[in-house]
Amino acid sequence: SRAGAVLSGLAGAKIWLGWQKEIELLADIAYFTLTTLSGYQTLGEEYVNVIQVDPSKRKVPSLRRRAVLVALHTVLPYLLDKGLSLLEQELEAASSGLQVLHSLNLSGLQNRALLRSWLQKRARRLTEGQRSFIAQAVHIVKQSIPLLRRLHLAVFYMKGIFYHFSKRTTGITYLRSVGFTEDDQSIRSSYRLLGIVSFLHLGLTLGIYAYNFRHRQRARKEWRLHRNLSHQMYKVWIFFYVQGM
Which positions, given as ranges, span the membrane (predicted)? Predict the structure, then answer.
């Protein structure tokens, strides 16, 4: 946020809004490079007296494991979000026969232009049915990512380990530099209760999604039936009109 405020003050709000995610990504990479990747504690880890350890829980993670952790935690979510959004735009543009316009301010980076051009060529080669299927799959993936994060967070509340996907993937956990106290046990009980509430809320959200999906499917079927019926009625009207002439 501080990096964004500085850039907004120097370059203007327009450039900041256009490059917000990239600036946040660079800020996160710089922060974790100076802390986790360099073998130091983050501010939060230092505040609660914890250190990162590898799956053996006997030594700190290796440099390669820490590098994978930082990449999964910062770069992968950015690439996934950008890739899915760009693919969705190109599929919509190919279906409508339009070409996605590029912003003129600093958006002509060669790698981004090459990726967009590659996606445009692939999207135009697909049939309408294939584009519709892939677009629906992309929409489902984008909707599923927040739900998976909430599910992972609920599991963390119940188990107390692996707050992020990146830590679960690399097997990096925390080890307290001081022993457990009675307050820690009460905190764990509170987190388990929070985990139960999170699971219930997630189940309710999935139920709402399922209901809305069924409602949209039924509305789509009714619309198709109404369209076919209207088309048939139009044919009948034309037939009697011609016969009357």
Answer: 191-211
Chain-centre distance for alpha carbon 89? 16
CA separation for the pair 168, 37 (Å, rounded) = 17
Cβ proximity of 147 and 202 under 8 Å: yes
pLDDT tens digits, 10-30: 666 666 677 778 888 988 999
DSSP of the chain:
-HHHHHHHHHH-HHHHHHTHHHHHHHHHHHHHHHTTTTT---HHHHHTTEEEE-TTSSSPPPHHHHHHHHIIIIIHHHHHHHHHHHHHHHHHHHHHT--PPPPSSS---HHHHHHHHHHHHHHHHS-HHHHHHHHHHHHHHHHHHHHHHHHHHHHHHHH----SHHHHHHT-EEEESS---HHHHHHHHHHHHHHHHHHHHHHHHHHHHHHHHHHHHHHHHHHHHHHHHHHHHHHHHHHHHHHH-
Integer CA distances (angstroms), 14 to 20, 102, 111, 185, in order: 10, 15, 22, 49
Given the DSSP bridges, would you call strands 50-53 and 173-176 parallel, antiparallel or unpaired?
A: antiparallel
Mean pLDDT, range 83-108, rounded to an integer:
64
CA 222 to chain centre: 32
What pTM was estimated for this model as a whole? 0.67
Q: Which residues contact 61 (CB under 8 A, 6 or more apart)?
A: 52, 53, 54, 69, 170, 172
Residue 121 · residue 114 · CB < 8 Å:
no
> Of the segments 18-22, 74-78, 111-115, 217-221, which one has the largest average pLDDT value?
74-78
